[in-house]
Amino acid sequence: MKNFEDLGFSKVDYDRERRTGYPEVIYGEGKTAEQIVHILLKLIEVHRKAMVTRLSEEKAAYIMTECPDAQYDKVSRILTYGATEKKYTGQVLVICAGTSDLPVAEEAVQTADWMGCETARLYDVGVAGIDRLLAYREDIVSASVLIVVAGMEGALASVVAGMVKRPVIAVPTSIGYGAHLEGLTTFLAMLSSCASGMSVVNIDNGFGAAYQAATILQLVSEGGQ
């Protein structure tokens, strides 16, 4: 079989799982439901699992008529078929500043779970009420990788990174008022953090943060090879 298949509107990358550990993931925005179904069924045929991100409820409803065994989560807007068996030691903890950030946080959780990670959630613990965060100090310091999702000024990520000796992946969200600039202020604040060792992904990119977390645990499970 070829490393990819040309469908005309898409070249489906069958070799990606061998190269990276995970199959190609379908980005749902900008594609028609029919196009997504075509790609999805090809990936399922080869990998026996598939995932679609940023998928509207309307498209998901159509896709599930063609692929009834798929599952759709409307908060994260992720559709999955099958999943990677749990294969990594350690835990990915997704920490969310506020309820408004939940769609991005859930995108991270759903992605990491599908990629074979053990996941846990710690939500609505923003720095405006920091006692809520500190009440879970034991859970925070025992996690293997931490994904911190926050909007506004993004301070939560710096606080968490100053508490732990594990990788922290910060996710700025587009939640905030005017000068927040739809997440740009948060993004720049996280990039400028005084907390050492923290990495930052793009605005609202819960998927990218989870993918990074999974590759970290993948490396650990392989003994650093």
TrEMBL record:
Entry's Gene Ontology molecular function annotations: hydrolase activity
Gene Ontology biological-process annotations: 'de novo' IMP biosynthetic process
Top-level taxon: Bacteria
The PurE domain, residue ranges: 90-222
Chain segments annotated as coiled-coil in the UniProt record: none
Xref: InterPro entries: P2CMN_synthase_LarB, PurE_dom
Protein's recorded name: Nickel pincer cofactor biosynthesis protein LarB
Organism: Peribacillus cavernae
Primary gene name: larB
